[in-house]
Amino acid sequence: MLTPYIKEAVEYRRAIHRRPEEGWTEFETMWLVCSHLKKWGIPYICGTKAVNPDFVMGRNEVLVKDAIARAIAHGVPQSFIDETEGYTGCFAIIDTGRAGPVTCFRFDMDALPVRESQDPNHAPARLGFASEIPGFMHACGHDAHTACGLALAHWLVDHKEQLSGKFKLLFQPAEEGVRGGRPMAESGQLDDVNWYVAGHVGGACHSNEVQVVTGGFMASSKFDIYFKGLEAHAGSHPHAGHSALSAAACATMMINGIPRHGEGDSRISVGKLIAGSGRNIVAADAMMQMEVRGVTHEVNEFLAQNVQHIIEGVEKAYQVKARIERVGEATTLELCPVLYDKLEQTMHEVDGITVIPRGPGSSGSEDCSWQIRKIVEHGGQAGFFMYGCEHQGHHRPDFDIQDETNMPVALKVFINFAKKVNKPVA
Length: 426
Description:
By secondary structure, the chain is of the alpha/beta class. 36% of the residues lie in helices and 22% in strands. The longest helix has 22 residues.
């Protein structure tokens, strides 16, 4: 009977939804996950054994420090914080003790800087589990992902006598901004994985629909760019200053004018620009947040290199200093038809759902792509699927799922896949 595990998943999702945490600050969510793993006797790996610091991007030490203080104030033990070494993300390990494949399931944990709707028609507001952190919410369903992963861990350990091999459940930080996937891929914990499945709620799938995703996600690079000029009075001594604002504005226009690549689709977005201190002061500082995406790694790198050239030119033209930080990165999906066949078979075994023909996902990006690539490099099979819900769009204040309807679908797919590939040898 799956009913108790489904009930647990809904409870976990709503608890996580109340306490949204942005990437690299998910200490309360980590504690919820790991404390339950401990209760069920499931070992886990965290800290620098789960996250390779050499590949960490876009981690703000000030935000991490603030998040740790908040987590401790909310009851997370200091001993657990010490255990994490300041890095969120963990692998739960369930070993059946019988020979068989190593199967990994991936679940992301982070939230978004979106202020949640208080409209009474919005279920979290109506039912009392809306975000308690002003300006942040789970607007992409990662609360549901983590909750499904936790309920799955409970089911697997309860039923491990019916299974073979080993399971690794990957709870990942910082998917937004594609920052957390590669550091966990480079931890070494995926090198022995034979089968890997990641899932995501929503997208183009409606309730009780599922789809195997075969490509479509774009390679992407995210940049924070800092300009340092020279401050001066804009009225009496404008000639003495070097405007970081003007440099950043010029860079914005030139970046948007980068030629598109003839070998595939691309995207360029300068999404944020902050500069200056007053209307009559030559701006000494500016900060830009931007991204590029390409249908292939090569197209993406073409765009990224052009950004670098533009910034170097703007430095000289405006006599400013510029610093570029690559704060996130994703690659494209490796294709694994053998896994797709097995995953679709498990989907067809779930009563009451519609299996949409496999096909490419959106032109967004997903950093599980690094994990999939790592597993394929080591001879494994890996893939990604969507399970549906009714929503108005991801990353919106009114984003929501129908957790009692949608999450059981995902849980059943994961369980069926585990039963199929980790079936004991007769």
